[in-house]
Amino acid sequence: MNLNQLYTNQRSGNHSTSVASRTDFQRDFDRIIFSSAFRRLQNKTQVFPLPGSVFVHNRLTHSLEVSSVGRSLGSLIGTWIVEHCKKDISLDSQEFYLHNLSNVLAAACLCHDVGNPAFGHSGEDAIASYFERNETDLLTKFNEKEWADLVNFEGNANAIRVLTHQQNGKDFGGTQLTFTTLASIAKYPCEAIAKDKSHIHRKKFGFFQNEKETFLEIAKNTNILQENENPIVFKRHPFVWLVEAADDICYHIIDMEDAHRLGIVSTSDCENLFLDLIQSENANLTRVKDKMALISNKNERISYLRAKVINALINKSVQLYQENFANILDGSLEKPLLDLFKKENPAFQEIQKFSIENIYAYKAVIEIENAGYNVMYELLDHFIPSILKENHLRKSYDKMALKLLPAQFNYQNGTDYQKTLGVIDFVSGMTDNYATDLYKKIKGIEIGMTM
């Protein structure tokens, strides 16, 4: 890959750049911050149910913290690229890598989860399984590639749609971000029919058929390497690895901190796991313990250790990115940066093992995943059959159901595939509370007017 061609300030919707006090990539960050899709993340589950009295992370606070880590990674790697590859990049590229790669990664990290539905991964599973379980009735309404999109529904692909799709009555190009920021969140740059779990860039898929031309435009303008034309498969853009690393750093460590705040994980377990990781990276453990001796509040002690661990993982990710830079550029790296680290570091392996056994299998986590699955499934079942009926075949209950579908999501004149995506846009964009409230009302569990 040519380092001079990995970025562009061209935006979705072919909107021209304008003179402003901010760079185009800073403007991406600001556009995401003020977008409705981002604001809705404040009431979408990260891992734990959202309690009223104890602070735990939701998708919005998680994304803000990932963005902070991404900015640090971008600053460190951008400086290294200029020092390491100075003879290969133009003066404009030096300016980009020194001053704007950090802005690109901050923006990309900020919006990496905007396509995720309510209730965490169980929301994704509910959408995909709805179509699997209703294959007999629905399969004939879609072509092979469209059906693959639906039965493999994926938050990463949905993020590209949320950020670029023109809804009814809204402007062309969606949020109108630069192609550089959009390319940086495309972890799985292939269409659903090409999904192959044995390859990192095809483990899931990266765009719906409806956004295929948009994605091809993103890939062309950011010089992503194409692996196959039919089905469409690209290698990952080099910036994706850093967005992924920022996300992995945050959820591995901060889920542990949240579990501690909720009393799921003991202070001693959390401290020991974090201290082992800090020590494994040759940190000055004596200095760390001296600082901890001054902090009596247990939550503050864990917060301090969390900050030290994140700093260590940022530095390790930078090192691994540098060591694997050639493979990242030619698309041959097959493991995420944090997986490479896990392979060589028993302390990090232990944190992941402990989290799987004691956090992600915790009763309250499993309960909300089950509840969320059922809520999302039933909402789809309320709208999909009605939207797919011919107008003259719709009964009164179908018409009543569709009156609940906002105009921007109702593609009555589109294909069955486009109509279905409109319903998915509506349901996947819901917050946990809104989805739960609507579910109760349409099921008659709660009757009455609320504002």
UniProtKB/TrEMBL annotation:
EC number: 3.1.5.1
Annotated GO MF terms: dGTPase activity
Stored Pfam families: HD (PF01966), HD_assoc (PF13286)
Keyword Hydrolase applies: yes
Family matches, as CDD domains: HDc (cd00077)
Origin: domain of life: Bacteria
GO biological process: dGTP catabolic process
Residue ranges annotated for the HD/PDEase domain, each copy included: 55-261
Gene3D superfamilies linked to this entry: eoxyguanosinetriphosphate triphosphohydrolase domain-like, Hypothetical protein af1432, putative deoxyguanosinetriphosphate triphosphohydrolase like domain
Keyword annotations of the record: Hydrolase
Annotated PANTHER family: DEOXYGUANOSINETRIPHOSPHATE TRIPHOSPHOHYDROLASE, DEOXYNUCLEOSIDE TRIPHOSPHATE TRIPHOSPHOHYDROLASE
Protein name: dGTPase
Species whose genome carries this gene: Frigoriflavimonas asaccharolytica
